[in-house]
Amino acid sequence: MKIDVWTHILSPAFAAHLEAQGQHYLLENRALRDLDLRFEVMDRFGDYRQVLTPIPGPTIYRSLAGKALIDLVRRNNDEMAEIVAQHPDRFAGFAAATPLADPDAATEEASRVVRDLGALGVQLEEDLAAFPLHEARYEPLLAAMEELGGGVWLHPIRKPSTPGFPVEAAPFLFWLTFAYPFDTTITIARLIFAGIYDRHPRLKVIAHHGGGLIPHLSGRIEMMSWYTGMDPTLGEALQRLEKQPIEYFKMVYVDSAMFGSRHACKCVIDFFGSDHVLFGTDTPFDMRGGAHFIPTAISDVEESVLDPSAREAIFAGNACSLIGARV
Q1: Residue 282, phi-psi category: left (phi > 0), alpha (psi -120 to 50), beta (remainder)
Q2: Can you tell me the distance from the alpha carbon of 14 to that of 202, in angstroms, rounded to the nearest whole number?
Q3: Closest CA to 23 of 53, 52, 64, 71
């Protein structure tokens, strides 16, 4: 069996909001909301099930705030739960959305969906400016997820206008291709140095796209403690932590959505270990309903892992034991 832990879906509530706002890009990706098309692609891969994840929130509701935002997110989550309940042979569960701009409301909704709707956890957006998850205002949200045993899917969310890349580079998708994994890396690093794993050692953070740059730059991470003389703040931070930074980075869980970069997938598995990697594809953002992402992700794992038990753990076992994916 293969359980794909990262497959996006566009709920009827989110789709209706996009229609009203005149945002058509996501609506043109039929597999995001056409279940028959999704099932047609899924049938090509045998005993294969999906965990549904929402479209990153700010992409949908950037024009909303307050009660309107909270109500839209709740409708999305209710609809995702209903879709999973109607198709238990297709979907192994779902990760819910939160109104992340309102930390208190996000904590309340995250608790509701795990406790009352049976969500496997929540997807939180990484926006280093708008949603600095390492700050104290998000502590109750992360604490609630640890207490309830829910997973935290970390998803980068950057727009072409986000500071950090020249505006004229936007058409070349640098903000998507290169900045997404960078944002994932920085978000996790800030959480670690804020002591998140010392306070919440059972927190199950799942980082998209193999954990960004972490496994590929692990040698540089191990050298962090060598440079405390450059700034005393680093030395003070390291003294507060109970472990070396590299040990915390290895506590992160990641997915296998590497889009056919087999050498990168092997690097991810070698660094995090087969017990910390979950099979994920980012379907259907190949714009082919997953017909490209799913087989390339399968091939990446199969060619990176020779041991059958380790392979099985990545393909399904970790999803069941870690986040309670249903089979």
Answers
A1: left
A2: 32
A3: 64
Which pLDDT band holds residue 62 (cuts at 50, 70, 90)? Answer: confident
- How far is Cα 327 from Cα 319, in angstroms, rounded to an integer? 10
> Which residues, 6+ apart, have CB-to-CB distance to 325 below 8 Å?
3, 5, 49, 51, 92, 93, 120, 316, 319
Sheet holding 277-278: strands in order across? 2-9, 48-54, 91-96, 121-126, 151-156, 204-207, 253-255, 277-278
pLDDT at 22 over 80: yes
Quick one: average pLDDT of 145-174?
88
Distance (Å, rounded) from C-alpha 301 to C-alpha 174?
26
Query: Which residues are paired to 51 by β-bridges?
Result: 93
Provide the mean pLDDT of the chain.
95
- Alpha helices by DSSP H, 65-130: 66-86, 103-116
Q: Where in the sequence is the domain holding 132, given as residue range(s)?
A: 2-323
DSSP string, 202-252: T-EEEESGGGTTTGGGHHHHHTGGGGGGG-HHHHHHHHHSSS-HHHHHTT-
- The 8-class DSSP code of residue 317 comes to I
How far apart CA 124 and CA 11 sit, in angstroms, is 17
Predicted local confidence at residue 8, as pLDDT: 98
Q: What is the mean pLDDT of residues 66-72?
A: 96
Number of domains in the chain: 1
Task: Return the CATH number at 93.
Answer: 3.20.20.140
Cβ-proximal residues to 296 (8 Å cutoff; 6+ apart), any chain:
259, 260
Tracing tokens 């998140």 back to the chain, one arrives at 196
Q: What is the pTM of this model?
A: 0.96
For 295-315, write each residue's pLDDT tens digit. 999 999 999 999 999 999 999
Let me know if 49 is exposed, middle or buried by CB neighbors in 10 A (0-12, 13-18, 19+).
Answer: buried
Amino acid (one-letter) located at 222:
E
